Amino acid sequence: MKSTAEYLDDPERAAARALSLLQGLGGLSAAAAWGWNGTAWRRLAAFGDADGLPDGEALSAGTQPSAGAGAQALRAGGQSLGWLAWRGAPPAQLETVAALLAGHLQCEALRAEQAAARAANETMLEISLLAGECPALERMLPRLHRLMQRLLDADNFCIALYDEDCSAFHFPFYVDRRDPSPPDPERIFPLAGPHASLTAWLMRGGAPVVLTGERIEELCSKEALAPPAPLPVFWMGAPLANAADELIGAVVLQVYDDQPMPTSAEQQWFMFAARHVGFALDRALYHGRLERQVALRTSELEGANARLRAEVAGRKRAEKFQDVLFRIAELSNTSLSLEAFLSGLHRLLLEMVAARNCVVALYDMGSDLISFPYCADEYASSLRARKPGKGLIEQVLHSGRPLLLDPYGSLPGVTAEEGEMPPKSWLGVPLYCDHELLGVLAVQSYDGEVVYGYRDQEVLEFVANHIGAALARVRALESLQQAYADLEQRVRERTSELDAVNAQLEFDSLHDPLTKLPNRNYFSKALRRAWDAYLDGGDRFAVVFIDLDRFKLVNDTLGHLAGDHLLFEAGARIRTCLRHYDFLARLGGDEFAVLMFGMDAVDECEIIARRIVSEFERPVILAGREVFSTASVGVVLADRAHYRQADDLLRDADHAMYCTKQQGRQGYTLFSHQLRIDQADQLALETELRRALEEEGQLLPYYQPFISAATGELAGFETLVRWQHPQRGLVSPGVFLPVAEESGLITRLDRYMINAACAQLRAWRAEGRVDEDCALHINLSSANFRDPDLVGWIGERIAHYQLPPAMLHLEITESALIDQPEAAATAMQALHGLGVRLALDDFGTGYSALSYLHRYRFDVLKIDQSFVFDLDRKQESVAIVRAILALARALDLEVVAEGVETASQQAMLKEMGCGMLQGFYFAKPAPAWALDWDKLAGLGREPDRVA
Ligand code: C2E
Ligand code: CA
Ligand code: CA
């Protein structure tokens, strides 16, 4: 025997077992058992002639089995589980078997129910898992449907999704046996009136709905809805809500008449599943939304990122451009030439473009030429300027637009010129400056790897934009430099003009305009240079001082033109006496000086000095007349033992010349040691003379008488100064007068003497020794003519000593008149006005210009003692004295002959008709107290009477 548990597995086997038990009882001809499988009756087991037994369907319909064919309902828990029918079975056994079988079937029903519940649960779980899984909607919905199918017959099933934004729904999932095409999307709010669908109504209502066929029709007509077509026998729907209980859609299931009606359990599962579908959908939708949002955000971010990246790249490029632009600008400002600028530019360009080969072409409209100020090329070293032709440069120039040839041959008709390497890629852009097309910037590549594109064109255009302006700047700089160069040239020219002018000025400042010889200034410089060189061990040299003896006379008598001529001639004559390297200068007036280099000994100097003197012995022809102008020369030899500075050499040469003058002119004097001592002595003398003038008694007036040649009577006295020196004894004027003249003390000395003489004359008059016919002569140096007070002072003295002015005779030498003719004339005029008389001293020695006698009003003429001295020896002197006497007579002048020492001289002068005589023959100068008045009375007697 099998255990009861075995039967539980299988109702058929349990029924067969139960029936076999009945069969074993015997007497039973036939029996059958039916069970309810949930939807229909089915025969579980049978034996015998079962056909005669009532079948399950008939039984379930409530038909009672016929008598004799006993039937027993199998019931459990008030539920009919099946039937057991038999024929002829004893009722007791039947009941037992039926109870057994019913128990079996109940178990079976419970088991089936349990299995279905488990399956439904599993499906629900899967639905909720599906919701958790969150696949994409299009994958999820068919799976949802498959799971639904497991719960109930869902052949006509759809899922509607509500879109809140447009308050409408559509069917992402739809299956229908009879109407396979899903309905159009439909609005819910507001409902579309009689066309609204049941689904719309369902969603609007917000609650699940289960409708049978009749109910559908009823509802549609009541609610004015469009009934579904074809009309189902059953319609069931549930709105779907999300976690927030908001409408998201609906699930709808329809059953047509060929399908079994869903059981109430199935309806419950459907509703239950609908909630999970809602969650799943919600999650899927949410997920989808999220994903879409994420995708949207991501794409937004990606977009933003891309924009940022582009922006950064753009900014970097802009920075690079900016940097390059800046450097171009800098380059244009710092480049000293266009060439330097362009090569610098090329370097910058290389940083941005593969531009190994770069050409800058400039077009000049004036010459209609394209020049190439810059060309860097792997195959061509330079490009020659050319007339515009058919080249690519010309095309860019013509169009004024960039030209990109990539590849090079892409432009028909473009071929490289003969011998030229054709590039692979070519790019040229126009160069503009202020809308003016200047030229072209072009790059080309011979390398197949390097091809130019619009990006390069952009860069090149960018650079070109700034080249134009920079070119203008560089050109401006170049023209500025040209302007500077011009300016410098002009400055140089101007400077050289100025130099010439300066040189002329310097020449003028250093040269005498008349003779063109160096002047005193220049001489001093040369002298100092020579002196310094000498001190440094250089050549010894001599300084020669030359003074023309008769120059002033020439100037006054023959005029300045003749004087100039004489000076010019003098310069030329001195020059002929010198070596070419000797330095000759005109110091001023009639003074010349020479630096004679390489002079070691005095005799060398003498040779040249003598030569100069003799050069002036020849007459000069001036204004058609022969003029003799001798020269007085002084020479000094540089000597570091005796000199401290160069200027002293000139001073001593001058002094030596002066000595020559003193010694009667026309000759030379070598400055000697003796002269130097004398010079020193003169300085001492000067000091002592100054003191002598302040003290009484040192300077004494001596008086030398002169007599009338005819009568021998006293005619007058000449006052001559003597210096009773406390140490030196009696010093003669020949010694100290030059010192007085040079130091300017002479005027004081003369006033001293005039005063003393006037005082003496007054005394003599007072003593009655002289009458008014006696003349008192006083020597007056030319220096006095510079004293404007002189005449007034003399007048005052005359008045003071109450003298008849005509007794006073002032003796003036020719040289005084020559030195300052105007001042002399004025003073003499004034002295005449006082009534004082004037005598021309030393006549015949100086220039003996007769014009003086006409010009100045002299009263007395004194024949120089040199003529008197030679009277009895030289016939020439006799002639001169005769001439002078004739002249004096003609001019009505009195004449005094000086230096009469012998009786024969006296006799000759008397015989020649000379008015008055003065000389040692009669008396030597003597102080007033020593005058022998008795002797004076008979001075002019016959010689034999003189003791
Ligand atoms: P001087 O005016 O020609 O004066 C005549 C000079 O001849 C005087 O020389 C006189 O002593 C000298 N003497 C006169 N008779 C004879 C003679 O027979 N034989 C010779 N050999 N000599 C004779 P002293 O006094 O030595 O004066 C020299 C010069 O000094 C003067 O020449 C005059 O120019 C100047 N002198 C003299 N005293 C003064 C003075 O008080 N004032 C000025 N400014 N000059 C004066
Ligand atoms: Ca005199
Ligand atoms: Ca004299």
From TrEMBL:
Keywords: Coiled coil. Gene3D superfamilies: 3.30.450.40, 3.30.70.270, EAL domain (3.20.20.450). Residues 682-939 form the EAL domain. Residues 477-504 form a coiled coil. Residues 539-673 form the GGDEF domain. The keyword Mitochondrion does not apply. PANTHER family: BIOFILM ARCHITECTURE MAINTENANCE PROTEIN MBAA, DIGUANYLATE CYCLASE DGCP. This is EAL domain-containing protein. It comes from Chromobacterium vaccinii.
